[in-house]
Amino acid sequence: MLYRTLGRSGLRVSRAALGTMNFGLDPQAPTPEAEARRIVGAFLDAGLNLIDTADVYRGGTSEEIVGRAIAHRRDEVVLATKAGGPRGTGPNDRGLSRAHLTRALDASLRRLGTDYIDLYQCHMPDPDTPADETMAVLDEFVRSGKVRYAGCSNYTAAGIVAAQWAAERHGGSAFVSLQANYSLIARSIEAEILPVCRSHGIGVLAYSPLGSGVLAGRYRRGDAPEAGSRLAEWAAMPSAMVRAWVDGLLTDRHFDVADEVTAAARTLGTSSAAIALAWIAGRDDIAAVVLGPRSTGHLAAALDGLDQRLPAEIRARLDDVSAGTVLPAVTGQPRAA
Prior knowledge:
Shape: globular
Distance between the termini: 42 Å
Structural class: alpha/beta
Oligomer: single chain
Number of strands: 10
Helix content: 40-55%
CATH class: Alpha Beta
CATH architecture: Alpha-Beta Barrel
Strand order of the largest sheet: 3-4-5-6-7-8-9-10
CATH superfamily: NADP-dependent oxidoreductase domain
Number of domains: 1
Order of helices and strands: EEEHEHEHEHEHEHEHHHHEHH
Strand content: 5-15%
CATH topology: TIM Barrel
């Protein structure tokens, strides 16, 4: 498995990252702790090192499980977590202000059972907090030794530029990474975000590489998501925004792309998921692909996909059929001042 330096930092990360949103202690969690520990062990045993979580995943229990799973192998891990999402109902229980991030970092360190985080990421933009404030407090975290590097997630191109300029103005730590939704059915970051990341020395971590399961053949054109599936769970949520997100995934345009992925899989004698992962792993702009396995079997299959090399003609067909595919993105950006 190849490693890449993350952006302009000296941090080397594996081409696959382990996403842990499925890890939880509640009965509804897709991956209970015992299986989560096996997944983490198999991931590290394969020579991989980047493990990603967030303080809002499963109410914080994902961080707790990850912390226990890596406790005896901490030095092998590039540990990444995220903050900024809602952690309560109070006015300062979310966002990227000094007030919230300071509390959030200390809470994540406790749950993870560690005294430092390798990559601390702003989970989403906060239009109510100036970029100068956010970048200043992240730099303080780095200088304190509690954080090694800072990153962001779901930022717009303009938001990335505002944050990097703020860090430059104050002579502090800038973002070294961006997590972004990127797959054969979500290529909108190619227009502006990827060029900005190249210009500002930011490594890209691609999440949802299987299009939330659409590219893996888990859903059928014209059919509602099956009970128990991730999209069925999301479609049942009271949030109109989440329901709209599901509708935006299950479009004829996206199923056309999925059909081409399935055809490529038949040609090469592999799975649709392997084809989708091989396509994104072969993109030069991507530092790491964030996998979200629910079991050790899912992890093994995903790693096989990342080792797949696509023939030029198949890659060209996939490029062509998926050109211009767009999913709704997180909007908003930090204020520059």
